[in-house]
Structures are given as structure tokens and as C-alpha cells.
Amino acid sequence: MMLGRTYRSPMVGLGVLFGVTLVGLLVLPFVALAVSTPVADLRAGAEHPLFAPALWLSLRTTLMSLSITVVLGTPLAWWLASSRSRTARVTEVLVDLPIVIPPAVVGVALLETFGRRGLAGPLLESFGVSVPFTGGAVVLAQVVVSSPFFVQAAANAFRKVEPDMLIVARTLGASPVVAFVRVALPIARPGLLVGASLAWARALGEFGATLLFAGNMPGRTQTMPLAIFSALESDVRLAVVFSLVLAAVGVVLLVAIRFAPMLRRSPARGAS
Amino acid sequence: MTTWHASVATHVGGFALDLTIDGDSTPVALIGPNGSGKTTTLRAIAGAIAVERGSIRVGEHVLEHTDRGIHVPIEHRRVGYVPQGYGLFPHLTVQENVEFGLANSPDRYRVEDRRQRAGAVLSELGCAPLAERRVDRLSGGEQQRVALARALVLDPDLLLLDEPLAALDATRRRAVRHVLAERLEAFGRPAILVTHDVRDVIALGATVVALDGGQVIQKGSLEELRQSPASDFIAEFVGLA
To answer: Which one of A54, A73, A216, B87 is most buried, counting C-beta atoms within 10 A?
Structure first.
């Protein structure tokens, strides 16, 4: 809103002070992280035996959990956005549950579900499947804590698709699936990308639920956040290097999220 | 001459729609206060709302017959629909909007055919220079014409227009109304439009169907409605109040 020069109350000064304080608190730790790492340490950290397996495991598991989240979450988000039923509203609240529940609690809850004596444990065991403390457990924990972010963003994105547009698409010969793919998905795309990025960032940072449900086994269930935790016990500088790498990935994601809405295809193409 | 018939009974939320309307190639104007069921009627005919009881026929094609268990899905009804606000696809260009239906057509047009057909309809409506534009860069009148082109390119058996001129300012409305009247005359097939403006009825030479509370309360020519308006709304609409 451009109001030009307006009268400023002295309270504005106080507001600015508060705002600057908070921004400082948010940014300072990352500045400290960046300036406290000599280049030589970076190289040593990257060559440490914990580093490569943890980074690789983190990338592999988060891409898998993101795929699961997008495949399972997109139809759900579409339903949440288009249904006016009470079931949909209740489901929406249920989906948000992992956002407000501490990750450690999610970890315990997952053990109570898939653990040997958990709710579904005996059934899985009869098929010879044991989930806890495996790579599968890492992925499962990530899906549970991160998918709500995707579903929420995707549902909001789908709400921007006017129902009339879909009716028009249908009258133009599109089946419900074609109308969804050719009209709803492209219109919602920026929001879907933001949701997917948020979910991926959350999965990449997942610590508590993973530690409790999947353990902290190097090369098997030790993702980057867990490797930082382990490194901290032996060598603080190593933990700093690991952290820096994760922070860098986060910054790249943030930039991607900020610019995703501008990624709309420019339709001004030549008449080829 | 193509005739059509729609007898529809259904509920949407708490609203009950129960009406029978019919006509031929003369355009039909649905009028009535807000919430009287005009848009719901169009959507039911288009097939976007489930009909609980009734039948819909356009020419020889039965689109809906609940007693005989017939429900033709929207995409096979050959009905053109221009909603309020036009419903143009914001992620596509003008040309791509108009080509959208041709790509779904069972006739399997080749890319070049699609381009040509869409281009021809756009030229007829004076929109050829807009072809490569994004739809959000168009004026209201241009959007209206593009939406009309997109519906007409598939040669529908019936055209449904929901307040086609409402979003335009007064001067533009007059110009677009003229275009619309011309197009509908050339179209020569049934059209049903929702309107709040008696000048649309006059320009299109439409028969009026007045709705209230989901039911037809009067139908006839503008002259007939003037002689004995069935409600205050109709009297106001035809310019008597």
C-alpha cells in the first residue's frame, strides 16, 4: 500500500526495534555458522567417513518421502479443496496434527504403531516385515512429519481453481481426469511447488521422530541431522561443517520457494 | 429447427430447483432475482449438477432421463458453456484457450487443423490479433469474445451463457451485445442466457423465462410480460415499475 509520507507515531520506533531484534535473532546464528568455519575445516568435514553416507541417505530418503507425499497427498488435497462436507473439514484438522505434535511424540507414536508390540506390528511381522530401525522407518517418519505441509499448501492452491473453469473444461470435451491435469494442476502449480519444497525442507531437517523410530545407525538410518548430533559428541567443528551444508541446502530451497510463483510459463511464444 | 426441452428437479445445498422449460432456436433469457436458480438451471442442463428427477433433450439427443437411467456426462453433451466471469484458463494463451476443446475432440484434429479452426473463429469475433496474448491481459469485452469463441469452435448443439455482459462497463456492453446478437443469429441453434438487462432480451429477440425460488413463474415474449407481469421483479425488469 503506497500512502506516501504519513505521520509517524513514536510507537513506530518501538515496533522497528522489536522487528530488528527478531530478525537479528533469526539471522545471527547462520552468520555465526558461516563465519566460524575455515575452508580447511570444510574439506576435512566433507572427507569425514560419516559425511557422505549421511548426506546420501538424507537425499535418498527425502526424495522418496517427497514422492510418497506428493502421490498420496495430491488427491487428498484436491478433495479437501473441493469438498464442503464435514468429513473433509475434520480430515483437514487430522492432517494438521503432526504439525502441532512434537516430533519426539511422533516417533514414540510410530513405535507404538509399527513396533514389534505395536498396533500393526504383529500383522506386519506375520508377513516377515519389520519396520522400526530400517531405512523404511526413516522414510515413514519423514512422510508423517512433512506431508501436512504439502497437503495444506496444495489444498490452498487448488482452492484457487474456480469450479466454473472445470465445468467449462468438461463442456469442452475433457474427462474429469483430463480437466484436472490440463486445468487444475497447471493453475495450482506454483502453490504445489511451494508445498513440495516446504515438505522436502521439513523432511530433510527431521530429527526427533527419526531418532526414536529409526535409530541412529551410520549408513543405515543416520541422516544428516542425526550425523550432526553424533558429530557434536566427538568434534564440534565437524558438526559445524555438517550444519553448514544442511543450511546451504535450506537456503537454496528458500530461494526456490520464493521464486517458484514466478516460474509460470510465459505463454507469449512465437507462432511456430 | 432444433427444439429443446429441460425438465429438472434437484436440490443444491438447501435450495430446491423444480422447473420445466423448452424452446427452439430463438434464444431464451432466464431472468429472476439473485438466488432464484438461474445459474443452477444452466449447470443442470450442462450436466454439472446431478438431476434427481427429470429429462433434458436437445434436438434428437436425450442428455438426461432419470426414469430411463440416462445421464450423458458433461463432455459428451455438445453443450457450450460461458460462465459468469468467462472461466478462461489463465495459464493458456487466447489461441490455446480456443484450441483446448479441439484437442479433446473425438475428431482428433491435427495440430495444424486446430490452429486453423481456432484462428478462424477468433477472426470472426475480431480477436485474431489477440491470439498469442495471455488471457489476464485482455479487457472484459475481449475476454467475453474469447470465451464465446472457445465455446463456438466446437459447434455445440446448445449454448449456455451466464450473464455474458454483466462484467462490462456500459459503453462496452452495448458493443459486445451487438456482437453477441450477431453471433447467436449466425449460430442458428438454441441458446439460453441468464441476464439482468432487458436490453439483452430486446437485442437478441429472446423469449423470457422468469424464475423465482427455483420455479418458473412466467414465460413469454417481452410484450406478453409487459402486459401482465407476474411479479414486482418482472414489472421492474420489463421497465414498468
So the answer is: A73
